[in-house]
């Protein structure tokens, strides 16, 4: 429930615990339920600003954590960042040369919303497909992929496309997702190539 300042409990908890946003709890829950990250995984996080997922990822792996966003990401110890578009081939090349092997691709990216529901839904699915393509280009066989999406007419197609590349695909609506939101995450494990 919102407080008189318009902040909800999860927002205040995130502030108190030093996270850059409430989104931290979504990744924590996904990890608890699906174990998508192992202690020696190299991780690429797409749409990573302001960086709360990066904070969580840093605690889960001893290996590389690399965040990519259109916006700058304020420095975090032990985390590399690239300011750029996940669709930019130069960004993809940088990722390959920095990490070599990529075990996990996470994407919490969201486009700027216009307020027109069907247009926004199409833009989100388009971004998700781009993230899936990115994952397919960099992931090691057996790797994992998580992407934020929204329920709607185009969602089943995205789900089917993801299924074509991973051995196991599930969906998850996290506890800290706002009530009434259609947001959900696709959890895709074991990249088949
Ligand atoms: C909801 S925020 C991510 C929050 C982040 N997971 C965290 O925990 O702090 C969505 C981000 O996606 C980024 N984004 C949207 N389109 C993108 C693109 N094409 N390439 C890279 N980043 C993108 C936005 O700039 C925005 O910072």
Write a structural description.
The chain is of the alpha/beta class and 193 residues long. It has a single domain (21-191), classed as Rossmann fold. The protein has six helices and seven strands, in the order ααβαββαβαβαββ. It has helices spanning 9-16, 24-34, 52-60, 89-99, 117-138, 155-163; strands spanning 43-46, 65-69, 80-83, 102-107, 139-150, 166-172, 183-191. The chain has a seven-stranded mixed beta sheet with strand order 3-2-1-4-5-7-6, sandwiched between helices. α5 (117-138) packs parallel to α6. The mean pLDDT is 94. It binds S-adenosylmethionine (SAM). Residues 20-21, 23, 46-53, 68-71, 85-87, 108-111, 127 line the site of S-adenosylmethionine.
């Amino acid at each position: 429930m919102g407080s008189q300042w318009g902040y909800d409990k999860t927002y205040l908890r995130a502030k108190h615990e030093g996270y850059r946003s409430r989104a931290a709890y979504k990744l924590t829950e996904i990890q608890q339920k699906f174990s998508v990250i192992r202690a020696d995984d190299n991780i690429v996080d797409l749409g990573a600003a302001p960086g709360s997922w990066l904070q969580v990822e840093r605690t889960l792996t001893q290996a590389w954590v690399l965040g990519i966003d259109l916006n700058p990401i304020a420095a975090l110890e032990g985390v590399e960042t690239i300011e750029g578009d996940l669709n930019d081939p130069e960004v993809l090349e940088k990722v390959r040369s920095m990490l070599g092997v990529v075990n996990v691709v996470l994407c919490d990216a969201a486009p700027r919303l216009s307020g027109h529901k069907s247009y926004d839904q199409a833009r989100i699915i388009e971004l998700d497909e781009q993230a899936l393509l990115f994952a397919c280009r960099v992931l090691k066989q057996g790797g994992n992929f998580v992407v934020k999406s929204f329920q709607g007419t185009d969602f089943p197609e995205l789900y089917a496309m993801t299924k074509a590349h991973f051995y196991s695909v599930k969906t998850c609506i996290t506890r800290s997702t706002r009530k009434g939101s259609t947001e959900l995450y696709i959890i895709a494990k074991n990249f088949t190539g």
